[in-house]
Every structure is written in C-alpha cells, then in structure tokens.
Fold this protein.
Amino acid sequence: MLRLASIIPARRTVVTLVCLVFAGIAEGLGIASLLPLVTLISDGGSGSGSTAQALAFVRSLGVEPTIGFFLLVLVIGMALKAGLVLFAMHQVGRAVADVAVKVRLDLIDALLAARWSYYVRQPVGRFANALSTESHQAGEAYNQAALLTAELIQVATYVTIVMAVSWKLGMLSLGVGLVMVLTLNRFVIVAKRTARKQNRHLKRMIGGLTDLLVGIKPMKAMGRHARFQALFERDAEVIRRAQRKQSFARHATKALQEPILALCLAVGIYFALVVWELPAGEVLVMSLLLARTVATIGKAQQGLQAVRIAEAGFVSVADAIDVARAARETAHSGARPTFDLGAAMRGVTFGYDPERPVIANATFEIPRGLVTTITGGSGAGKTTTVDLLLGLNEPQSGEVLIDETPLGDLDIIAWRRMTGYVPQDLILFHDTLEANVTLGQPEFDAADVARALEAAGASDFVAGLPEGLKTVVGERGARLSGGQRQRIAIARALIHRPTLLILDEATTALDPETEANIVRNVVELARDTGLTVLAISHQPAWARAADHVVHLAEGRVVSVDRRAAE
Ligand SMILES: Nc1ncnc2c1ncn2[C@@H]1O[C@H](COP(=O)(O)OP(=O)(O)OP(=O)(O)O)[C@@H](O)[C@H]1O
C-alpha cells in the first residue's frame, strides 16, 4: 500500500480525499436527521437524550425543527454526498489511467537505462507481462485503494453518528464489526496469496512462451514443440486452481458477512428494546444505523480484499522496476571522447564470475584508421573483449583506453555513439528494410540509406525486392536470408558514419565472393575516410585484409601481428 502511495499523483489524491471526507460529512448529516425526524413523527417533538439535544440545537440556530426541515436536510445531505462522491470517483478514474501509464513509462525507462549484464539475466517475456497485465493491475490497485478509502471514511462517519446517538450502540457496532473482520480475515489472506500465485505462474507462462516462440524453428524442425504444451498446461492448472480459490474467498467474504450482520442486528435490537427499554421509533433508527455501520465495515473489508488482489500485479511490476533501476548504468557523464590515436586494452582482466577470468591480462592496440582483426577459437573471449571496449562490461583490473583516457572517465554514451556495431547474434526488427537501416531516425535521408547499403553490399538484393526498401523483413528478419540480414545490419552500423566499426562474425553467413566484396568496401572506407575497423572473424578474408591481427586463446593474447600496420 505504501509503495502504491509513492507513485500516486499527490494533488489529485488530496482533492479526492477532501471530497470523500466532505461526502462523508454530508451523508452523516443526512442520516443524523433521521433520528429527530422519527421522533417528530412518532411522539410530536419531545424526544430523549441525543434526539432532544438535536432538536434544541436546531432551535438555537433560529430554525423551527419541523418534519419538512429534517426531510430537507436528509435530501440535501444525500444529494451533496452523491455529487461529491461522483467528483471524487471522476478524479480516481483519471488517476487510475495516470498510474498505469506512469508504471509503464517507469518500467521502460528503467529497462532502457540498465546495464548490459542485467539483460543477460532476465527472461524477456517477463517484461511483456509487466507492461500489459501488471501495469494495468497497478491502476486497478489504485482504483481499489481509493474505493477502500471512501469506504473507510463512510465507516468513520457512521461510527461517529452512532457514538453521538448512543456510545453503547457505537461500541456494540464496533465490536461486532471487529468480530466480523477478524473472522473473515482468513479469506482476505487467501485472496492475496492466490493473486500472487496466479501472477507468478502467468509470468512464467508468458516468459516461457516468448522464449519458445523466439526459438520455435528448430523445435518445429525436430518435431519437439509438442512437449512444451505439457509445461504450459502445468502452469495453467495452477492458475486455474488459484483462480477458483480466489473466487471462493471473495464470495465467502461477502456471503458470510450477512449472517454476522443479522446476528448483530438481533443482539442490538434485543439490547435496545429489552435491556435499555428505548422507544420503538428510536430503536428502529438505531437498528438502521447499526446495520449500515456493520454493513459498511463489511464493504470496507471486501474493498481491502480487492486491493490485495490487484496489488499482486503492482508489487510484481514495482519489483521489476526496482531491480532494473538498481542495475542502472552510472557512467553517463565524463569527458567527450576523441579518437585520434585509437583504443587500447592494458592488462585487462575480466570474468563473469570474478573467480574465473574469461579475459586474462590482455594488452593490445586498436590503432586509428586501420583494420584490426581479432581471431581465436570458440569461447576464447573475443565477444567479451568487444563488450569491454564498448563499456558493456567493466574490467576487474587493467584499463580500456580511448585515446589514452580510461573509458570510465569518458561520456560512455558519446563513445558508443561513435561506434557502429554488428553483433554475432544480430536481430532485425519486424519493420521495413529502410526502418531497420535508419532505426527510424529522421536525420537520415535516401542518399544516406543508399550509401550505407552500397558499402554493406546490400544495394543489389534490396533493389531486386518487389517492394525494395519498403519490404517488411518479418519477425527478427525471418523473411530474409542469413547473409541478407547480415548486410542490412552492416548498413545500419555504417549509416551514421561511425569512427569505429565493430564487426563480430558479421560476414559468416555470406558466400566468399559477397564477403570479399564487403571486406573490400570496408577496407576502402577505412582508407578513404579514416574509419577504424575491428573485425572478429575466423574467416581468412578478414585476416588477409587486416593491418593488425590479435590472436586470443583462452582469454589471453597469444600473438599480435602488426604486419601491414608497421
Ligand atoms: N553473459 C555471460 N555470462 C557468463 N559467461 C559468459 C557470458 N558470455 C560469455 N560467457 C563465457 O565467456 C567465455 C567467452 O565467451 P565469448 O562469447 O567472449 O567467446 P568468443 O570468443 O566470442 O566465442 P565464439 O567464437 O564462440 O563466439 C565463454 O566461456 C562463455 O561461456
């Protein structure tokens, strides 16, 4: 509840609360007028105790306490209450939308600002659920919390009135209300637990399904997709059982309140008529007050139950935001990087588990304007080296230097903007070829796109497509061949004229001739524009073209060949 309060728009909440308090007072006045009204109707206006005081109070205001006067107070009180509650709920409706949107934007902001190691540990599908279901539930939690507040204010109003009429009756109402709340609290706890359980398993289902769909092709190809059905069925069954239990808990809370209320009424009426020997008219009104007080306490308990149910989604998405925020990248400020000399690794050691280094005391240069190729066997640490160079991972010891300045002292975002990067596991977005190259940035025109495609050796195949640049590439680029995807990814990395182009096994899917063309284009770019190239490759084409070859084995630099660079 407190976490929910921290994201609620404060001004709107205050306005809502003030309206609800005044609505409570208006309703209180309306209901309080019933007692003198009944007295006037039944015994002509004398009354006893609090009724007599109420009549005297009205007379002291210079108003004659007639039946018409109290009927007017009743109608005005109730009308005022309705108007104020309507206004308050209108505010709540707007706040609900604000809360859901705020949670979604906070989540997206936290996710985009997180450091690379964070994404590696997260199942992607988890965020789809957080963005849709859980964020929606956060809004619902606010809605239910507002309704609960309204009900609690109503409880306070009724208790005040009942206490003013008779403190014994007030204590009786509170006592019975308390017994009811404590007896039925079990169902509130069940509702909360089952809501959390449903949420957990739904998250697992969505996460698992997203993962499966991303890698569905080999599963289909090997005919092994069907076995996943059983895994989802297990989660679905848990959700079904939890939902049933939750439904029962909600209905039980409501249904069992009624007999408790009936019992309370019977006891109340008995005490009033037989023990305290109060007049029948007053007892009637008091019974009404008692019934409404206890019923309002019951409604508040149902409200609490609804909050507990909706809260499960909110807690889950709030946790996701907290975890992502804790993994926020910090080194965003610092000096603007230059690249006059090039980059270097000096005695860099890094391990995903610090006890087991993947890169050990690596030292080598990436000189400006030259083509450097890193070679080495699978798992030697080539991609990890690139991640260190881009500041996606930080060394445990040693330094990554850009123009002799440690990366940690530089504006890391500005540094990354100076690079063009084609990863090993490249992914295209489900959009047009053009959007995949420009990434939707409006500063690139048709000439920029044509230049990048040409350098990436993609112009001919794009021109041959019926819809050309407007061709939609399908999910993760599935409608293109592996080699075509690689060329589009290279064009994307070149369009913003990077200072350093990083190609991580970026031409592995190409035939030797196409690869040779791309290598030639990139080398020419390096010669003509001063572009620095870092290519990770097992392919002989890149080793042949390189000015500088760094060979890695088990995370160690075993040789540096500066053939052409000398
Ligand atoms: N996120 C990660 N968490 C833990 N270990 C990792 C992670 N990424 C890579 N590794 C491990 O680090 C080592 C180096 O991996 P890296 O991807 O850098 O190798 P590589 O030389 O690029 O290999 P390949 O040529 O097969 O792509 C491997 O043993 C790998 O299992």
